[in-house]
Write a structure and sequence with these properties.
Immunoglobulin-like, single chain
Length: 257
């Protein structure tokens, strides 16, 4: 967002202590952003020395801050923040999670670090480091190592001087859905075809419509495309076949003639 003037004050020589109550400023209420940046601009200076002092003590010997030379006018040269992030999204794809983000401007941007959190891990995992382009840009990264289930992502933006800014957190459910699972009969076998987000052990089970388990088989999955064949049992009718990976299950009906 563009900078907004919150308050102004004037003072001559002598001690002056302006006070701004943030709770009374409507523009600062109910903000979506977790980080708010403030700048203090001073206009006017000593005509002889070109010096302006802020927080000068009564004896004028221990200034907390001095600005030397010509001080900028309040309405000019408002430098942009180092990186203006305008969009950050995560979307489940056939192979992992696709991350997209865009910047409206970049100044002094060294790199972005992608952080990932999951439901079972409290600490962040560093997924990748992406070099900054230092101009308005779009970024894309595919996280093929995303965990099964909910994944939470955050961008860590680092300036060349080491200053760190964290983005909002976005989430995506990297779950195997019914549309990802194809079940059919072929050559006296029940066949399952699907894309697994992870390499893991899994369990396939067949239930009748009353919920009674008819068979169960453990399988080892590869990350990506999997094709599993199970000997067709001597059963007829409508059954439910389920696939469980890391405690998460998806299921489909199958008609065995």
């Amino acid at each position: 967002a563009d900078p907004a003037t919150l308050a102004g004050a004037t003072a001559g020589d002598g001690v002056f202590m302006p006070e701004v109550m943030l709770k009374d400023i409507a523009a600062l209420q109910n903000l979506e952003a977790k980080t708010v940046y403030f700048r203090l601009y001073v206009s006017g200076s000593n005509a002889t020395t070109g010096t302006t002092a802020i927080a000068r003590s009564s004896n004028a010997t221990d200034d907390a801050l001095q600005i030397f030379g010509v001080v900028e006018d309040l309405n000019t040269n408002l430098d942009a923040l180092p990186v203006a992030l305008v969009d950050f999204k995560a979307k489940k794809e056939n192979e992992g999670v696709k991350l997209n983000w865009a910047t409206a401007s970049e100044v002094n941007n060294d790199y972005f670090e992608i952080l990932r959190y999951t439901e079972n891990k409290k600490s962040a995992v560093s997924v990748a480091t992406i070099k900054g382009k230092n101009q308005a840009a779009n970024y894309v990264y595919n996280d093929i190592a995303a965990d099964l289930g909910y994944n939470y992502y955050q961008l860590k933006q680092v300036d060349f001087n080491g200053v760190v800014t964290l983005s909002k957190v976005v989430s995506v459910n990297n779950q195997l859905s019914k549309t990802d699972l194809k079940v059919y009969l072929k050559e006296n076998q029940i066949r399952l075809e699907f894309l697994s987000p992870v390499k893991a052990k899994a369990n396939v089970a067949l239930f009748n419509i009353s919920g009674q388990k008819q068979l169960q088989q453990g399988i080892n999955l590869m990350e990506g495309a999997n094709s599993i064949a199970i000997a067709q049992p001597s059963l007829k009718g409508i059954y439910i076949i389920s696939l469980t990976i890391q405690g998460r299950t998806t299921a489909q009906k199958i008609n065995i003639p």
